[in-house]
Design goal:
By secondary structure, this protein is α/β, with parallel strands linked by helices. It contains seven helices and six strands.
Length: about 250
């Protein structure tokens, strides 16, 4: 493994884009690309853990993805069910704790039970936290946080909303990567990524490997994270995981 950069992220978030295009280039059905994407995710979980990253959050299925063709949506639901059965035991043995983040009311009873079982099975692990954002949207996240805070009778301050966000159990992401060549975050972690460094890769997600990750980490290591300060005020290590992360669970 290459030498670790001195300035590395604690939490990486990834928009795993390009599965469908990867399949189309090979004249395969889109679901084949998503299956290859699962293989890439497994590889990336191992890679980020080996490089000292403690939290990985991935955008697996957005609130808007329900509008895709029925065949693709059905295939994605089946793929998640298969991945739960196949991947969770090995992830658990590797010390990965899994959280599924998103609205579950639209999912089948069987799938919801599978998500809960995976979370329960891995809840004692502490090597890496893997947040799988499934049926998730950043606007949904803010709305549900506001609703829960209001139901609790709390004033809607920034600090209160932050406690009710779906990823309140981890520090905000330091680095947000999007594969596939698009340069937008597409309603992913729009609250939590306020100060994340953004990195856009032209590689399709199934082709995003350890070398591509190292390129992103090297780019991140060269950034100056000021958080509203001047360059003269900034000192390292960076303060991103402090303050807001106090009282949160750490990997």
């Amino acid at each position: 493994m290459p030498e670790q950069p001195a300035f590395r992220p604690h939490h990486i978030a990834i928009v795993m884009d390009g599965n469908g295009r990867w399949a189309k280039k090979r004249m395969l059905p889109r679901v084949a690309g998503h299956k290859q994407g699962v293989t890439s995710l497994r590889r990336m979980v191992e890679a980020v853990g080996a490089r000292g990253v403690r939290v990985l959050s991935v955008f697996a299925f957005s609130s808007e993805n329900w509008n895709r063709p029925d065949e693709e949506v059905s295939g994605l639901m089946q793929l998640l069910a298969t991945a739960l059965a196949k991947e969770v035991p090995s992830l658990s043995r590797a010390g990965v704790r899994i959280h599924f983040i998103g609205e579950r009311s639209g999912l089948s009873d069987k799938l919801r039970a599978g998500l809960e079982q995976a979370e329960t099975q891995t809840q004692q692990n502490d090597k890496l936290i893997l947040n799988v954002c499934f049926n998730y949207g950043g606007r949904w996240d803010i709305a549900q946080a506001a609703r829960r805070a209001a139901e609790a009778g709390e004033a809607l301050t920034e600090a209160v909303l932050d406690r009710y966000m779906a990823l309140a159990h981890v520090p905000d992401p330091d680095l947000l990567i999007r594969t596939g060549g698009e340069k937008r975050i597409s309603n992913f972690l729009i609250w939590q990524a306020a100060y994340a460094e953004l990195y856009f890769s032209n590689r399709l997600w199934p082709d995003f490997d350890e070398a591509a990750l190292d390129e992103a980490l090297a780019d991140f290591a060269g950034r100056e994270r000021r958080f509203g300060l001047t360059s003269e005020q900034v000192t390292r290590p960076n303060p991103s995981a402090q303050g807001k992360s106090e009282g949160r669970e750490h990997a």
